[in-house]
């Protein structure tokens, strides 16, 4: 299984360098492991990340009113001291809508990891993804954890990545390195998710590690901010799931002075952290169920940031735009239409739309454009849709994918 | 082409009787016509409804920020005295995003009809549906209007119905009769729309006629109210279009005392009017692009009407629920998930979900149910999904359809 490749990236890498072979275990202090515990028929389904010290940690959770048991348990543990030393993740079963028994199962998962790693339970995060409403095969999980723990290693990165996947077609991982006070700092992350992906998070799990020195409070503030401009700006099918969670663990082993907003290297660290988050988010969108293309919608000239985000999400989430992209049909009318109902403040006569570099709408009206060139822009692995509202200075970017026959096929028969 | 059949209806018909062969021209004073003017390649594309007196009229328009030229023109005419004597409608071209020239074209359409029918321009409503961003072949339309006007007849119902269709697979029409002060009153309506259908209206046109005696003000109030519980509660793909409009014309030829909320027969009239609106809305949902089934989601026990509507719309609009229905997969997890992110106030442990008559979720957890029976419920022409929140007394119903391969096929190549 290949790592999801983003064929291009508009991202600036000023202030940090990207790593071609990312590992969740690159930051100092982290090891990982993954195995087949028997939750799924064949593939790996149980993964573990461990930090050799209790890491400063932060987490954000789905907005869905139905929150899966592992989220409740992780949130409760984080409430103690906002630190995490290990994360136990299973795929194949979401442990959602499973009531008190499901909650008890999540606690058992946590207890098993705490016991195997000899750390307090509140330092263990748990996460699950897969089918909703069925009890976890908790016996299999508890039985497998000791072996999983004993296989923790820096080379465990790929096994871990595989163990958290469901309908994903590839591994999602990104890593950057930067210097803080002249010392090398690593920021790495892995993610899973393809269906049910939407703003406010979805069946999407992302785990980030760093060896930067940063207290839980600033780390949490950073994670919240960055999540709104990365994970919360992707959509595959508009559905937000019950299990989404993004966590960040900072081992602090890089040994510089603690990072806060006042630290001279904060801006560089923030940009590097945001870059990893955006890369993972885009990989998830690119791997949307049935997707053949990544769609990037950049809205500029909005009066408010919220309006820019609404417009970008409306376009990238429109089934009609998504099918038009699939058909490589430069149907700019559907793009205008989505912008029109997004709620963003606009004057129709001021809107410009670009496909790739091709201006297809100017002043809210069709421009004379080269149909062939526009069509080619829609056939790129990454389709760039630009919308300029000419109202203000705010902008936002959203990512999604095309809507294909395979999306229908995959979701018309997920359980069977 | 058949009229869209709703295989079943939970609706009560107390106080009125349904008409098996509805005609937009049944109410006293109305005639209609439809023809091929050459906007489309072959099919009828220009339709006209005329009332022999200036009818009391009301209209509601799309919420989309991009409003097509004909809406601007119709709104302007209605502003004069809230009356309408004729409606000229074309399909094949939406006259949207066409700027000043498009606006001039809409005025020319109106002028042509006013001239042919010898009525003031402000009494002519115009509507368009079809491709966005292309100029109308206004010459063809102006040339065709006189012949269209001369063919106006009570039997013109079907020609008119055909002339307003785009990707519709069938005619949408409904009619009821009731008694006001002992006199027979007719309420009839026709509609078009299949793609881009969503709350807040879509490429959806509905024209209602009645011979009831009612002033514009109460008629407008009634139309607004009823639209929120019918046309605004259907969704096919979540996209709201630039051209939606619903109009109501009341000839007043039934000759009873004017209907107001204080009239003893108001309740009966309101229910009859709402029934026709719901039937048309359901026909549009049933005819959603690529749809094989009508999906009806009834949410009960909500704390607020808005919450009930949000939850019903979230479930009926979920791509994952829609594909599950297509696959006849009783995937109640996706239904709970949609309710969970709808924003409706709920306690997960209190939610019940039914498919057809089969309870699949009780207290927010999977019930033991007959998988075969649930599957059969999803294979019905009308799939009934019931969600009870057990929080309050408010309820709402939303209608949609399944998401199929054909939806992708139709929309990946609409223009080609």
Automatic annotation (TrEMBL), chains A, B:
Pathway: Amino-acid biosynthesis; L-arginine biosynthesis; L-ornithine and N-acetyl-L-glutamate from L-glutamate and N(2)-acetyl-L-ornithine (cyclic): step 1/1; Amino-acid biosynthesis; L-arginine biosynthesis; N(2)-acetyl-L-ornithine from L-glutamate: step 1/4. It catalyses: N(2)-acetyl-L-ornithine + L-glutamate = N-acetyl-L-glutamate + L-ornithine; L-glutamate + acetyl-CoA = N-acetyl-L-glutamate + CoA + H(+). The active site is at residue 203. Gene3D superfamilies: arginine biosynthesis bifunctional protein suprefamily, ArgJ beta chain, C-terminal domain, L-amino peptidase D-ALA esterase/amidase. SUPFAM superfamilies: DmpA/ArgJ-like. Coiled coil: none annotated. Substrate binds at residues 166, 192, 203, 289, 411, 416. InterPro entries: Arg_biosynth_ArgJ, ArgJ-like_dom_sf, ArgJ_beta_C. Belongs to the ArgJ family. This is Arginine biosynthesis bifunctional protein ArgJ.
């Amino acid at each position: 299984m290949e790592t999801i490749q983003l064929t291009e990236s508009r991202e600036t890498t000023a202030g940090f360098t990207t790593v071609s072979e990312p590992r969740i275990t690159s930051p100092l202090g982290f090891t990982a492991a993954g195995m087949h515990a028997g939750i799924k028929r064949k593939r790996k389904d149980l993964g573990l990340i461990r930090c050799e010290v209790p890491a400063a940690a932060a987490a954000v959770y789905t907005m869905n009113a139905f929150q899966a048991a592992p989220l409740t348990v992780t949130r409760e543990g984080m409430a103690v001291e906002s630190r995490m030393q290990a994360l136990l993740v299973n795929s194949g079963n979401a442990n959602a809508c499973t009531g008190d028994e499901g909650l008890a199962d999540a606690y058992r998962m946590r207890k098993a990891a705490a016991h195997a790693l000899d750390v307090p339970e509140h330092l263990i995060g748990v996460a699950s993804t897969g089918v909703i409403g069925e009890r976890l095969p908790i016996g299999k999980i508890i039985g497998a954890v000791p072996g999983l723990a004993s296989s923790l290693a820096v080379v465990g990165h790929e096994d871990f990545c595989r163990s958290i996947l469901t309908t994903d077609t590839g591994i999602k991982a990104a890593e950057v390195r930067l210097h803080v006070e002249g010392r090398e700092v690593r920021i790495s992350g892995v993610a899973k998710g393809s269906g049910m992906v939407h703003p406010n998070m979805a069946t999407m799990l992302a785990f980030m590690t760093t060896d930067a020195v940063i207290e839980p409070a600033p780390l949490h503030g950073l994670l919240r901010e960055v999540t709104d401009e990365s994970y919360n700006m992707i959509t595959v099918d508009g559905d937000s799931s019950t299990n989404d969670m993004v966590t960040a663990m900072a081992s602090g082993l890089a040994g510089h002075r603690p990072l806060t907003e006042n630290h001279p290297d904060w801006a560089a660290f923030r940009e590097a952290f945001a870059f990893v988050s955006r890369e993972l988010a885009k990989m998830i969108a690119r791997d949307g169920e049935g997707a053949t293309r990544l769609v990037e919608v950049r809205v500029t000239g909005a009066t408010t940031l919220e309006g820019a985000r609404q417009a970008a999400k409306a376009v990238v989430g429109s089934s009609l735009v998504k099918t038009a992209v699939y058909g490589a049909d430069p149907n700019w009318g559907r793009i205008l239409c989505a912008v029109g109902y997004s709620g963003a403040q606009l004057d129709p006569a001021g809107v410009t739309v670009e496909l790739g570099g091709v201006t297809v709408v100017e002043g809210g009206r069709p421009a004379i454009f080269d149909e062939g060139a526009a069509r080619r822009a829609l056939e790129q692995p990454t389709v760039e849709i630009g919308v300029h509202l000419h109202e203000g200075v705010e902008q936002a970017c959203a990512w999604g994918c095309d809507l294909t026959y395979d999306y229908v096929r995959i979701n018309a028969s997920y359980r069977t």
